[in-house]
Structures are given as C-alpha cells and as structure tokens.
TrEMBL record:
Residues 31-168 form the Oxidoreductase molybdopterin-binding domain. The lineage of its organism: Bacteria, Pseudomonadati, Pseudomonadota, Betaproteobacteria, Burkholderiales. This is Oxidoreductase molybdopterin-binding domain-containing protein. InterPro entries: OxRdtase_Mopterin-bd_dom, OxRdtase_Mopterin-bd_sf. It comes from the Bacteria.
Length: 174
C-alpha cells in the first residue's frame, strides 16, 4: 500500500470512529499510538466499562532490590491485547507483526515493553491487564489508575505501571 493510500485510509478511519481518537484523550485516560490502523484513546470510564477480566491476588516484588512491596488484591481490567486489537495493527510488509513491540509509558515517563509474541502468541498475554478497579473498589489516579500489569511476571513490580498514559506500537527493523 502506498503512502497516499495509507494516509487516505487513516483519515477515513479517524473521522469515522466517534468516541476514541487520540487528540481527545482525557486526563487519566490512555492513548494507543504508533503502528496501529486507528490511533485511539480510552477514558477511565471507557476502561472501566470494558473491564471483563478478574486477576488473582499477587505479591508485588521489585526486580532491582528483590524487595517484597505488598500483596495486591484482585484487579479487574481489560486485556491490553484487546485494546490493541481494537486499534488494529498495521502490517505493511509480511511478517511485520513478528518484530513488533509495544512500549507502555506512564505519566512520569516510566516505560516498559511488551512484544507482539508475548501478548498474542504466549499465555503471558492472557494476563496483561489495564485496571481501574482493585478488590471490588474503583481505583483513582492517586492510587495509580489506570494501572497496567503482567500477571505472570516473576518479579511483578517492573511491569506494574502506575498511571499508564500511552501504548505505542513499533515495528523493529533488524
Ligand atoms: N509510573 C510508574 N510505575 C512504576 C514505577 C515508576 O517509577 N513509575 N516503578 C516500578 C517499580 S521499579 C517498582 S519497584 C514499583 C514500586 O511500587 P510502589 O511505588 O507501590 O512501592 O512500581 C513500579 N511501577
Ligand atoms: Mo523496582
């Protein structure tokens, strides 16, 4: 697909998807950008409305210091791969998705990565959630919402991202 076609398609999609366009990102919400078909954003209310997965309780443990931080009650949230699928992955050349990474960054600049394989081709992806509710109670920004975490990580703290702001998808070139 040529550049002009891609731009035309992008514009068409941008004008036809009503609620979720990156420029209209609300404070506290998240945006999906980069190599996606439709740049999208989700407010905290929209994330709450989509929360359909309940995680198990787990221990938050730092990788750098090995420190046990605290036990976290059950998060309810939406799978990261579900939101990425709504935005749609751009795949300009065959196999692009195999070299895709997702950079999840927070309001304070803290950032972690996921790969397409992890999310879509391993059990890890079944437990990567964006949550706004914990232990049956709504979480607010002060308590880290929206929080992204990866339920199968050995050390859970690094990919327990508080105040998630953006998911950027990129195709890496060798
Ligand atoms: N937004 C954001 N999330 C973050 C971090 C950070 O610096 N910013 N640090 C991570 C790391 S390395 C650890 S150990 C834990 C610390 O969790 P705590 O602040 O609840 O003790 O948060 C994780 N999530
Ligand atoms: Mo940490």
């Amino acid at each position: 697909m040529g550049m002009a076609d891609t731009a035309a398609k992008f514009e068409q999609v941008m004008t036809s998807t009503a609620p979720a366009i990156a420029e209209h990102a609300t404070p506290g919400g998240i945006s999906l950008t980069g190599d996606v078909l439709r740049a999208m954003s989700f407010s905290v209310d929209e994330l709450r409305a989509r929360a359909n997965v309940l995680a198990d309780t787990f221990d938050l443990q730092c990788f750098t210091t090995d420190r046990f931080i605290r036990t976290v009650d059950r998060y309810r949230g939406v799978l990261l791969k579900e939101l990425i699928s709504l935005a749609g992955l751009r795949c300009d050349s065959p196999g692009d998705f195999k070299r895709m990474v997702m950079i999840a960054s927070a309001h304070d600049g803290y950032a972690v990565t996921f790969s397409w394989h992890e999310l879509f081709n391993t059990p890890v992806g079944e437990q990567v959630l964006i949550a706004c509710e914990c232990g049956g109670q709504p979480l607010d920004a002060e308590h880290g919402a929206p929080v992204l975490f990866s339920g199968t990580d050995i050390h859970s703290a690094p990919r327990h991202v508080k105040r998630l702001a953006r998911i950027e998808t990129r195709v890496l070139r060798p």
